[in-house]
Amino acid sequence: MSSLPASLGLLVLRVALGVTFVAHGWQKIVLQGIPATQEGFAGMGVPLADVAAPTIAWLEIVAGIALVVGLASRVAAGLLAATSLVALFLVHAGNGFFSAEGGYEFVLVLAAAGVALVLTGPGRLAVDAVVVSWRRGRGAPSRIAQPA
């Protein structure tokens, strides 16, 4: 189990990353609208833009909320990291490093933060930790078969 300071650090990381992704999903769905987002994706060369735009937008919202509360954190962080890496290579890589010029700076940080959460887990200040604690306390069956 991680220490309280480490868990607080992971909480800060989860909330910042989750809120950022929720805001970007909200932007795609509500502020720009899905049709404009689909058009933008197509203009950037994203394959299957008509499917990708709403899928990515909803993924950003749902996985972002999951990160904030710490539910299925590793899965949510992994999906968001993968999305960021795809954006890095499909859209931003050819524009250099700095995000002011459309570069990959921002999506690289988002991907790195997601990978960090996949590797470390959410910490003990997360719903995931409560679920694990509850399962252990209830004597939930282990994934490893015990000898008879």
UniProtKB/TrEMBL annotation:
GO terms for cellular component: plasma membrane. Pfam families: DoxX. The chain crosses the membrane at residues 51-72, 79-100, 106-127. The keyword Iron does not apply. It is found in: Cell membrane. It is a multi-pass membrane protein. InterPro entries: DoxX, DoxX-like_oxidoreductase. Keywords: Cell membrane, Membrane, Transmembrane, Transmembrane helix. Belongs to the DoxX family. This is Membrane protein. It comes from Frigoribacterium faeni.
